[in-house]
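Colleagues,

Please find the record for the two-part complex below.
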Amino acid sequence: QKEVEQNSGPLSVPEGAIASLNCTYSDRGSQSFFWYRQYSGKSPELIMFIYSNGDKEDGRFTAQLNKASQYVSLLIRDSQPSDSATYLCAVEYNNAGNMLTFGGGTRLMVKP
Amino acid sequence: DADVTQTPRNRITKTGKRIMLECSQTKGHDRMYWYRQDPGLGLRLIYYSFDVKDINKGEISDGYSVSRQAQAKFSLSLESAIPNQTALYFCATSDSPYNEQFFGPGTRLTVL
């Protein structure tokens, strides 16, 4: 069974701190991993994607992938109140079809 | 204008009614998807289509049907709505298995 697990939160961090969001998945054959941000009542928007083991950095965001341990994480440096949202981890389970399985999301709250 | 649009944005209906949710896109993508989102459950795939002649069931297709009228249009129908179909519904598109999915603004459906 395809599973993507996230801590639902809320994860509360002070402004300026590093927020660490984690996601585990069950299929060792997964190749593509995505982080989406979703503001309340809005549609998901892509923050990061990662395909290879290791770190990928984009501005204040860093995605980390460890296929051996089957986890992917998202670090947000210098967290801002505008980062307060739900972060969805999505894992592609079928290389030919781009079928994404989404985790339940982690709600992040950045307090001024 | 938005690249992926959904109509209606909000709908309240009664048990047993037939409902159609529509999705249109101007991104020129072949792949289109319908998801539903319930609190704490992330996004779950209902149906997906890789082109006009290719339609596939997703994780939770029971009680739903779809129609791909053109490359740009993908409609979701609830033949006889029931209260547990109350949810937020998203349409999404992508152009390849490895690129991001772009989401529409969502339709909030309430079945009384």
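The first strand of chain A starts at residue 4 and ends at 6.

Comments are welcome before we finalize the supplementary table.
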